[in-house]
Design brief:
The complex is a heterodimer of chains A (481) and B (112). Chain A is mainly α. Chain A has one domain: Ammonium transporter fold (Orthogonal Bundle). Helices cover 68% and strands 3% of the residues of chain A. Chain A is built from 17 helices and five strands. In chain A, the strands form two sheets. Chain A has a three-stranded mixed β-sheet. A two-stranded antiparallel sheet of chain A has the order 4-5. In chain A, helix 4 (129-147) runs parallel beside helix 9, helix 9 (232-250) runs antiparallel to helix 14 and helix 11 (293-321) runs antiparallel to helix 12. The radius of gyration of chain A is 23 Å and the shape is globular. Chain B has a single domain (2-111), classed as Alpha-Beta Plaits (2-Layer Sandwich). In chain B, the strands form two sheets. A four-stranded antiparallel β-sheet of chain B has the order 2-5-1-6, covered by helices on one side. In chain B, strands 3-4 form a two-stranded antiparallel ribbon. Chain B has 112 residues and is an alpha+beta fold. Chain B has helices at residues 13-22, 70-81; strands at 2-8, 29-35, 42-46, 49-53, 56-65, 89-95. Classes of the chains: A mainly alpha (481), B alpha+beta (112). Chain A binds chain B through residues 260-263, 321, 323, 325, 327-328, 331, 367-369, 371-372, 381, 384, and chain B through 44-49, 51, 53.
């Protein structure tokens, strides 16, 4: 790993350093391989949401609410995409007034041309910023769409239509900014090189000041040292807790706990879950931003943890409930994908195997025992799978990144090598990441659900809810037979 | 004229049809139904949600025959549909006031 890492990082860094010695900072180069991979990864993530998540969720609701689920997911994809290009990308990925949110300097994608580079994790290597815009756009969309499972089958379309733009603006953009916004490897490397090259004390002080400024240009949780490779907190804890408070505020479905609310098509849920796994390779391995070794690490982990978690859930269910089920196995697969998301680019292979096994047991426990004790109607278990799985992953990442456990360690661009690992420091940072995401999204989402309730109302009338949202909200039926 | 209506286990349909054909009954209406009697339902588990499913899938068959044929029809259905297990179903017989064959306009016994 070290040698490969040197080849991957060291040579471009060396070249960049040579070039940086001149008066102007050398532009990082964009290569066609990375660009191709990242465009591919982008459509893979799109495929996770539509049709993957839409079918996974759609199959789990009753047949009278199938179209409502499909349209809510499809709407969320489209509206988030539009908001992303208007101001979302800018609020997330530019420097702003503070460490919690970006600014409007790239609103309407201004200044982004086909040649504009976006930083990767390698000094001297870039991808077109347009690709980065699209890749991150699909993340924002799926995060918002995940929430829909919690409040499924009893929330008016008008409420969803209003909630999504508000949520993505006030919850997702700040959290993504806090975790993922940084000045990039090139700026840090150049500033560090300049500091090393500075001869006299005045120049050194000036260069140190410049380096500090570069390092200060980042989101709050990034600077706190939290690591989240592909979105354990940004995507899963975030959507999971937003859905959880949503299901409490929207209330239980009519007949919850009394009527049979069995999934209307586990076949569709199976197809959807498999498409989620398929698309998740773009999500995790794409988060490396380059078609390089790091992407391979994430790709491999996305296989291992998912299979481990599916098996863990299925066998635990077999032991506890008496039968292995399709829904259990695919729920386990999704929980494994969630848990490995933050760890995918940091964990070793065996680390992700253990992570998957652990996540399967914990998520199963939350979706069955805990849910039945507290009797909240998180219809499709967004909390139990995404929030809990995300927390297991975020904390697990802090442990599994340890090079002694086969992890990659965290690369420090100021010293151009993997930094020393300290478990306490890392776990405190990860804990901060989890708690701030839970608080920001939990409290913020609760406020937004209440606002939507006041403006358009969250629930349809009982008659309309009983009739099903397909007919009452959309005037159409999923199955005319 | 009588209608012999029987609720049977779905997988017994072909045997019942063969038995009825064997005694000269040509014509049968089948409906998929759900219901319960003494047979217990089963439990379905979807993650944490466990549902007791009391309504079991059955087939309802209806045969219209002349009154004197009724004992033979009952015998044929009973013989073919019986497994000896709980949930084999039930047979009900009731009278027909009138019968018409739509194609020819024949009535009553001729229409059966």
């Amino acid at each position: 790993m070290t040698k490969n890492y040197w080849l991957r990082v060291g040579i471009p860094a060396f070249v960049a350093a040579m070039l940086a010695a001149g008066p102007a900072l050398a532009d990082p180069t964009i290569n066609k391989g990375d660009t191709t991979w990242m465009m591919t990864a982008t459509v893979l993530v799109l495929c996770m949401t539509i049709p993957g998540l839409a079918l996974f969720y759609g199959g789990l609701v009753r047949s009278k609410n199938m179209l409502s689920m499909l349209l809510q997911v499809f709407y969320t994809e489209c509206i988030v995409l539009l908001i992303w290009v208007l101001y979302g990308y800018s609020l997330t990925f530019t420097g702003g007034p503070n460490d919690f949110i970006g600014g409007f300097s790239k609103a309407f994608l201004s200044g982004i041309s086909p040649d504009t580079p976006a930083a990767t994790f390698t000094v001297g290597a870039a991808i077109p910023e347009g690709v980065y815009v699209m890749f991150q756009m699909t993340f924002a969309a799926i995060t918002a769409a995940l929430i829909l499972g919690s409040v499924a089958e009893r929330t008016k379309f008008a409420a969803i239509a209003l909630f999504m733009p508000l949520w993505i603006t006030f919850i997702y953009f700040p959290i993504a900014h806090m975790v993922w916004y940084w000045s990039g490897p090139d700026a840090i490397d150049a500033a560090a090189k300049a500091l090393a090259a500075a001869a006299d004390p005045t120049a050194k002080a000036k260069a140190q000041e410049a380096l500090d400024a570069v390092l200060a240009d980042g989101g709050y949780l990034y600077k706190a040292g939290a690591i989240d490779f592909a979105g354990g907190s940004v995507v899963h804890i975030n959507s999971g807790i937003a859905g959880f408070v949503g299901c409490l505020i929207v209330g239980k479905r009519i007949g919850f706990g009394r009527d049979v609310m069995a999934p209307h098509s586990l076949v569709m849920s199976f197809i959807g879950a498999c498409l989620l796994w398929f698309g998740w390779f773009g999500f995790n391995a794409g988060s490396n931003l380059e078609a390089a070794g790091g992407a391979v690490v994430a790709f491999l982990n996305t296989f291992i943890a998912t299979a481990a978690c599916a098996m863990s859930w299925m066998f635990v269910e077999w032991i506890v409930k008496g039968k292995p089920t399709v829904l259990g196995a695919i729920s386990g697969a999704v929980a494994g994908l969630v848990a490995v998301t933050p760890a995918s680019g940091f964990s070793g292979s065996m680390g992700s195997l253990v992570l998957g096994l652990v996540a399967g047991v914990i998520c199963f426990f939350f979706c069955t025992t805990v849910k039945n004790i507290f009797k909240y109607d998180d219809a499709l278990d967004v909390f139990g799978v995404h929030c809990i799985g995300g927390i297991v992953g975020a904390l697990g990442t802090g442990i599994l990144v340890n090079p002694d456990l086969g992890g990659t360690g965290i690369f420090d661009y100021t010293i151009n090598k993997v930094a020393d690992y300290d478990m306490t420091t890392q776990m405190i940072a990860q804990g901060k990441d989890v708690i701030i995401t839970l608080l920001w999204s939990g409290i913020g989402s609760a406020i937004l659900w209440k606002i939507v309730d006041i403006i358009v109302g969250l629930r349809p009338s009982p008659d309309r809810e009983r009739e099903g949202l397909d007919v009452s909200d959309h005037g159409e039926r999923a199955y005319n037979m | 004229m009588k209608i012999v209506m029987a609720i049977i286990k779905p997988f017994k349909l072909e045997e019942v049809r063969d038995a009825l054909t064997g005694i000269g009954v040509h014509g049968l209406t089948v409906t998929e139904v759900k219901g319960y009697g003494r047979q217990k339902g089963h439990t379905e588990i979807y993650r944490g949600a466990e549902y007791a499913v009391n309504f079991l899938p059955k087939l309802k068959i209806e045969v219209a025959v002349a009154t004197d044929q009724v004992p033979r029809v009952i015998g044929a259905i009973t013989g073919a549909a019986k497994t000896g297990q709980i949930g084999d179903g039930k047979i009900f017989v009731y009278s027909i006031d009138q019968a018409v064959r739509i194609r020819t306009g024949e009535t009553d016994a001729d229409a059966l």
